[in-house]
Amino acid sequence: MEYVCIDCPRRCGARRGDTLPAGFCASPALPRVARAAPHFGEEPCISGTRGSGAVFFTGCNLRCVFCQNREISRGGGGEPVTVERLRDILLRLRDQGVHNINLVTATHYARAVGQALDGLELGIPVVWNSSGYENVATLKMLEGKVQVYLPDCKYSDPRLARAYSMAPDYPERAADAILEMYRQTGPFVFDGEGILHSGVLIRHLILPGAPDNTKAVIDWVARAFPENGVLFSLMSQFTPMPGTERFPALQKRVSRRENETLKNYMADCGITNGFWQEPDSATGEFIPAFDGTGV
């Protein structure tokens, strides 16, 4: 597999080969996987009681200065896998009894992942767990292969998107992408166990000192989707990370007062289908070991 890559909004035009890292995402064309195992750190309707079959891919098309998966998001680590081997990994996870297959940060491997999913009968939902920074054309390649979309909606403020993730066009690109995700799945549907069977669950991480960014994201979600259309997860698990010293606002956690104010704002905007976290969720315990487990 070799191609000139314009699959994400950066459209960097890198020539990506099977094994040679290239492009902004610093990734080859074939996937590199850092972990493939049941995961219990997602929302209850994703993790359930048996876990979500999470496949953690290396590399990313963002450069979030506060990234908690930096160990793999910069393209390092992980095991290279062929399309056939990726299919085997997904089937093996399914056979372990997980509720779903959870593809974590796979945007830059969308072509290979799409091939792995093509004609694959898993019998459980496939979850596309992404940063939200996607091309609509790339998402269209996944239509019918992904049942649940789990995107971030990180920013409404392009200045923050530029400063923190090197992506000033993030707000518009993410909005277009999430609307496409909803077009594909329609309103959310749960199965008999309360697990998300199909639909869109939008995540937003509260950033310290940026309440207006969060409020505008909430406003957009409330305005863009009908009642009972999408689920929304308001997260307060932000944890200061090494390398953010030049950003004073990112040197602290979200306060209980900030969290309560934004949680109330979400409710006042009519968003009642979803989840929120308390500030004491801000620990590193939910970050798995990227040690090649299951690969």
Radius of gyration: 18 Å
Give a short account of the largest sheet: 10 strands, mixed
Shape: globular
The topology string of helices and strands comes to EEEHEHEHEHEHEHHEEHEHE
Helix-strand makeup class? alpha/beta
Q: Can you give keywords for this protein?
A:
9 helices, ten-stranded mixed beta sheet, alpha/beta, 295 residues, globular
Brief rundown of the structure:
The protein is of the alpha/beta class. It has 9 helices and 12 strands.
General description of the model:
With 295 residues, this protein is of the alpha/beta class. Helices cover 29% and strands 19% of the residues. It is built from nine helices and twelve strands. The protein has helices spanning 44-47, 70-73, 83-95, 110-117, 136-140, 158-165, 170-185, 211-224, 256-268, and strands at residues 3-5, 14-16, 32-39, 52-57, 79-80, 101-104, 126-130, 148-151, 189-190, 196-205, 231-235, 274-276. The strands form two sheets. Strands 3, 4, 5, 6, 7, 8, 9, 10, 11 and 12 form a ten-stranded mixed β-sheet that branches. It has a two-stranded antiparallel ribbon with strand order 1-2. It is globular. The two termini are 21 Å apart. The relative contact order is 0.15. The model has no long low-confidence stretch (mean pLDDT 94).
